[in-house]
Specification:
Number of helices: 8
CATH class: Alpha Beta
Largest sheet: 4 strands, parallel
Radius of gyration: 17 Å
Strand content: 5-15%
Number of strands: 4
Distance between the termini: 36 Å
CATH topology: Rossmann fold
Number of domains: 1
Order of helices and strands: HHEHEHHEHHEH
Shape: globular
């Protein structure tokens, strides 16, 4: 196993590893990976058949693309809402521009959302399948992280807790008749990292 300094360096080093005979599995722009991630949507439909809204964070768009494809194929009325954090918001910028936008750097604390750009397929899926993309601040994501940990005893990464922050922003969209699911998709938070977070 080899580690790169950041996601941009990792993508840059891929071609060299492939020349050495390594097999490259793209972390989000791969139809098989997206299909596997789509099974989360099937689980949601099994567990919450009355679901009306699903809130999912976005890195490069593969996870939300897979979930939205699976869910909306079987239940087209479900609204799927995307979430990014400021400084890791390549999808919202790309949707606004109408083309793939590459961020010059990832500055958000939500590092696992740090894809520098979506792919053409994930951007197309976002355009077709998402209700919208809400961009929240790191401060909002950290406040949500603290709420989930204190009230629900669920430890998430900021890349997952941002879904709660976005749902709070979107509360006017959710009447009491609606059934909203938040996908808390990351809990890889060592205690040392948690202790260093500026959670107030």
């Amino acid at each position: 196993m080899r580690f790169a300094a950041d996601v941009t360096a990792a993508f840059t080093e891929v071609a060299e590893y492939e020349r050495q005979g390594w097999a490259y599995i793209h972390p989000f722009d791969d139809p098989i990976v997206m299909a596997g991630q789509g099974t989360i949507g099937l689980e949601i439909l099994d567990d919450v058949p009355q679901v009306t809204d699903i809130v999912v964070s976005i890195g490069g768009g593969g996870l939300i693309g897979g979930v939205a494809t699976a869910v909306r194929t079987l239940k087209p009325a479900v609204r799927v809402w995307g979430v990014e954090t400021e400084g890791a918001d390549c999808m919202s910028k790309s949707l606004a521009a109408g083309k793939v936008v590459t961020l010059p750097a990832i500055t958000s604390i939500a590092r696992t959302l740090g894809a520098p750009a979506p792919s053409e397929p994930t951007l197309a899926m976002a355009r077709e399948l998402l209700e919208g993309v809400t961009v929240v601040s790191d401060e909002e994501a950290l406040g949500a992280l603290r709420f989930l940990l204190e009230r629900l005893k669920i430890l998430t990464e900021p890349a997952a807790s941002c879904t709660f922050a976005a749902a709070d922003r979107l509360r006017d969209q959710f009447s009491k008749e609606r059934h909203v699911v938040l996908l808390l998709c990351g809990g890889n938070m060592p205690l040392e990292d948690l202790a260093r977070l500026p959670v107030t």
